[in-house]
Amino acid sequence: MNPLLAKLHPYPFERLRALTKGITPNPALKPIALGIGEPKHATPELIKRALADNLAGLASYPATAGEPALREAIVGWLARRYAGVKVDPATQVLPVGGSREALFALAQTVIDPTKPGATVLCPNPFYQIYEGAALLAGAQTAFVNSDPARNFAADWDSVPDDVWARTQLLYVCSPGNPTGAVMPMAEWQRLFELSDRFGFVIASDECYSEIYFRDEPPLGSLQAATALGRTDFRNLIAFTSLSKRSNVPGMRSGFVAGDAALIKPFLLYRTYHGSAMNPVVQQASIAAWNDEAHVVDNRALYRRKFMQVTPVLAKVMKVALPDAGFYLWADVSHITRDDVAFALGLLAQYNVAVLPGSLLARESNGLNPGAGRIRLALVAPAEECLEAAYRIVSYIRGL
Ligand SMILES: Cc1ncc(COP(=O)(O)O)c(C=O)c1O
Question: Pocket of ligand 1, candidates 96, 122, 127: which has the most ligand atoms within 8 Å of its Cβ, to mutate?
Fold first, then answer.
């Protein structure tokens, strides 16, 4: 067996399942799940129709690079969404089967494990695929804590130069899971400078980019690069997905865009791996990228829900409307540092499942930045999320 498999950490939900084994959730109350971040709003009819109308595509093998029409639709969407961004559909974009597989596969493409100390840098807390991708590529991981005092920005200046020098790949997530924070231009500028100096690749996970609560849409990495004159996107690759934007997590569709010098070897890797997108899904993806009305409606649903739920919870815990995403990253440390015990008690007494924050982070510099926090995924209908919020208020008041 591949010995690197033994290095993988159990997934946060696996750890939570093990922790909740002996717990009987209050049977008098209907269960409410705020733990898993799976979109639950309805899939738009236009996407279902495009799937049904294009079944003839099943009769042929797809190219790994995707249909030119799909790459054109993606590039068109990028240009509409991000002011000034020009992406070449022939060399700077590829369809992927959701951002997760692509985030994983990129590490297998860019990491050179023969170089001593090959390192992948991740924000902390983070999406666990980054870590698994690094470990299976034969690299080691290093974590950079997010700072609640600076809107959860990672403390890049805390990374010593010798770690930067070993870093081959840096993952960032903006809007962040779980923090909901959007990286500002100054942070991009700093990361681009560091990438130029030390030569690492930046993988920018932007799968929550279309769910936001401010007037201005989140700044994207390609947009930041363009504004800073880096129109070749050197050493940068952005990951975008339809899963959350268009409520199709089961369709497995997204794209990567960025530096042609990364896209070319990535296409080679993906060809051998067999990562071509189903032709039916390609057609439905074209329909999805070309329509913005359903995205506006979807965002409005989340906005209404967050506006209703956040003030209720803010009475008992430190929680604020995030920049974007569909999570509340709530601080319960004034009640307890033991976020696991907090979550287990809530499940036992009120049948509400939340994710303990410490399971989403690793200890780094003597600190687990998820400790004393919980992540609430507001994916269920608004009434259910609101009911959960009232139960959480009762739970905390009863502690
Ligand atoms: C931060 C982050 N990145 C990527 C993904 C993967 O999404 P998908 O593969 O559906 O695009 C998720 C899913 O929950 C996520 O939270």
Answer: 127
